[in-house]
Amino acid sequence: MPVHCTACGERPAALRRPRTGQALCRACFVGAFEKEAHAAVTSGRLFRRGDTVAVAASGGKDSTVLAHLLRTLDARHGYGLRLELLAVDEGALDGGAAMVGADKIATGHNADDVAETVLMNFLRGDVARLRRGTLAAPEEAESSQDGAVPRCKPLRHAYEKEIVLYAYFLGLDYFSTECRYAPHAYRGHARTLLKDLEAARASAVADLGHSAEHLALRPEAGRAARGACTRCGAVASQPVCAACLLLEGLERGLPRLGLGKGRRDRAPGIEGEAEPWEKGRGLREEATKDDWLYGAHGLKALEEEPWQRRRGHKAMGAEQENPHLEERQPGALEEEEAEPQQRRVWQLRRRSQNIVGEEPEVNGEQQPGSLEEEETHHRRRGQEATGEELQLEATVRQAEAWQRRQRRNLDF
Amino acid sequence: MKCKEGAPVLVIRVGDAFCKACFREYFVHKFRAMLGKNRVIFPGEKVLLALSGGPSSSAMLRQVQEGLSRETAKRLRFVPGVIYVDEGAVCGQSPEEREDTLTRMQALLQASGFPHHLIHLEEVFELPSSILQHAPHAPSPPGSSYKAAVEGFIHQQRQGAAGTGDTMAPEGQVQERLAVLGMQEGAAASPEGLLPASALTEELRQLFGAVTTLTAKEELLQMLRTHLILHTARVRGYSKVMMGDSCTRVAVKLLTNLSLGRGAFLALDTGFMDDRHGDVAVVRPMREYTAKEVAFYNRLFGVPTVFMPALDTKVLEKPSIHRLVERFLYALQAEFPSTVSTVYRTGEKLSATPADTTAEPQRCLLCLCVLDTGVVEGSTLQALLISEELSRKRPSDPSPTRGGCCAGAGARRCCGSPPASGTKARADFLPLLCYGCRLTIKDMTCLEPLPPYIRSEAERRRRRATMKQEIQEYLLEDEAAEPKS
């Protein structure tokens, strides 16, 4: 006996909504979905009139639905947006967005992604990321600091299944390819748990989202004592930031350097408080069974956003995947995927290259030490050096001295 | 490994082999360090130990026993009591099994040498609604030294003993209320034998029968158990309750509560000290011991435990969220041995949200946590409300099962009230709860079987809210505290 749509009461129901358990007809479901999306856009104040929005499109279901939805809603409600579809193969999302002159990037992260991320961050102890997910976190501030285009997730309250239902009923076509490393990724575990939780309680996805927003973190946790890395000048809580540490490992032929106990719990560069027994252990290496997870390719798995996973980007070799172990200029894709702090590191390094003309050497004696001498040196090169860059030079000098001292103290 | 002479008998963590003596020392040291680091237990304070019969709480009891014994150097100085809550009615035990368990627990309690209390879960039906009220308790100002706090405590004790009739002492009020209600302690215990009156047991079964999902049953059980323990503590003058949650249990609880929408209260639910009830604080001294360490300790030093089935023992299909997370974490721990400790340490980085200094914040009726249901623009909660709103579009639509009271309850005794009042009662009840408790109640078919203390408190709050609404325009500012009425 046909069930009637509970919303309009006339047409026969075509589906049962995962979110509310209601039986709805096609039209009412589509209507409800779109209304909710509109509410998310307006209440979250995601866009301003006149904004150019780059819609990150991978061809997968989330971005397909997102693109369609934004276009429909923009036309229907008059957001006044200029929408650009941004399909990047291996390039950076930020770079692409800059090219089309976008003010914002809209990604297709859905509620399931958010829920998975919370679980994962808790399992990894990534307090910094947890903090960013709370309601109290300043959303825009961080991105605008380093010149990256601010991002938003208009679909973050939509259940993944509903997105598929929407695409199905509207006849939207998409390709879904999974990253070939997905089965090995840690995220897979969280994904399985989430599926089970959903089976036990339909609202589990939303409940996790709610929990994530209301997490109360200690003020000092997950926030670096914001000092500067003595090598590259980037934000770090230790004398040498994780990026430089890993680089150092590569230079010395110790690929596990900086990956031992105490380092892995933190997103590289965003340091938390070191445990008392970990202080001063920065340059000591230690390999444990867990290191496969946080080791070379594992670190990339750590950085994985579902965005990247679905794109099915061309797989790089395991060792290559880790941007930190490479001295080459990072590919645009990695730039986009990496933490803002990491991006700053690369930018700074590029800048330092411009000044110095070569990578600051660890062992070599180079330029003169004092500030005045450096200025003369720069003028000789016919460049205007800003105070900031001079600072960088000075800190690099300090870092080398510190490193030399450290190496003398440790036995390898 | 440590003393280099004794024969190693067990390995904790990679590369850490202990001999029996060193392990014992390590174990004891951890306990004392835990109490010493968070200096919240005052000398001479009455502390209630919550014993479940399981390994962690039994180990805790043993630690307290040893710590208090005269021979110990620097012995612990507080006055312990032990409590055990009998949950046999809902855990599927036959009366004989239940009696058997109770006898064994009685023996254990008596052997502990401390004043003990054996409470039946059925006694929830006799709780006063005061248990749901946050008893204001002047916390020592932050930064004050432990010494000052101890002095304050001793002073308070002397005052109470001298019978100056300190009207702020919540115990006095509760005693009054008990007398007013004509309630006697232990009234629920039936005159014959160990088991309580079967009528009460039946009521309890009905209460749990009205809950549809296992997850909600677990939550309800925890809630009721906590209320019982806290009530006993209050009535008997205990100011602290010690729970035996181990590190593993804490990690599981963290992820479980995340999934239950209780992210805002993780620090209270799993932290060392939980003072949401005001006058009685819950401490968890065992939270740094992994289940493995506790198990080894119990085995090596012969700590007696009593096994009893839980709510979800032998329930294979449709596991609760608690069980799912537990399975998940254990499986992951087998592959990555640092999982539990990482989760635990993440939990440590949480803090309880600082209480609003001005107004007395609204608290959840059931769990007494500050409500986290304020609608913030762009939040998940708001999106959910919008979805619900869109679902309710047709007023003529006879609302499906969730509206009618006792719909489909079948032959079971129903509340007898018309469906309309059932929906309304629920609609009145839910706003009094935090997000997590709302989910639990939503999984109940009918609110009638809830114990009287919950319903009367809900009624009281509803009446107060209506009152406030009527005079809203004349009120100048939020009251600083609920006046004692």
Automatic annotation (TrEMBL), chain A:
An annotated GO cellular component of this protein is: cytosolic tRNA wobble base thiouridylase complex
Q: Which GO terms describe its biological process?
A: tRNA wobble position uridine thiolation
Q: Which GO-annotated molecular functions does the record name?
A: transferase activity; tRNA binding
Alphabetically list the UniProt keywords. Transferase
Region (Disordered) spans which residues? Answer: 261-283, 305-394
Q: Domain Cytoplasmic tRNA 2-thiolation protein 1 C-terminal: where?
A: 227-257
Q: Which InterPro entries match?
A: CTU1_C (IPR032442), Rossmann-like_a/b/a_fold (IPR014729)
Q: Record's PANTHER family?
A: ATPASES OF THE PP SUPERFAMILY-RELATED, CYTOPLASMIC TRNA 2-THIOLATION PROTEIN 1
Q: What name has this protein been given in UniProt?
A: Cytoplasmic tRNA 2-thiolation protein 1
Which gene is this protein's source?
CTU1
Automatic annotation (TrEMBL), chain B:
Question: Where in the cell does this protein reside?
Answer: Cytoplasm
Q: Which GO terms describe its molecular function?
A: nucleotidyltransferase activity; sulfurtransferase activity; tRNA binding
Q: Which InterPro entries did the record assign? A: CTU2, Rossmann-like_a/b/a_fold
Q: Pathway involvement?
A: tRNA modification; 5-methoxycarbonylmethyl-2-thiouridine-tRNA biosynthesis
Specify whether Secreted is a keyword of the entry. no
Mind listing the UniProt keywords for this protein, alphabetically? Cytoplasm, tRNA processing
* Keyword check for NADP: no
GO CC, sorted alphabetically, is:
cytosol
A GO BP term, please? Answer: protein urmylation
Q: What task does this protein carry out?
A: Plays a central role in 2-thiolation of mcm(5)S(2)U at tRNA wobble positions of tRNA(Lys), tRNA(Glu) and tRNA(Gln). May act by forming a heterodimer with CTU1/ATPBD3 that ligates sulfur from thiocarboxylated URM1 onto the uridine of tRNAs at wobble position.
Which family does this protein fall into? Belongs to the CTU2/NCS2 family.
Give the protein's recorded name.
Cytoplasmic tRNA 2-thiolation protein 2
- The organism encoding this protein is Alligator sinensis (Chinese alligator)
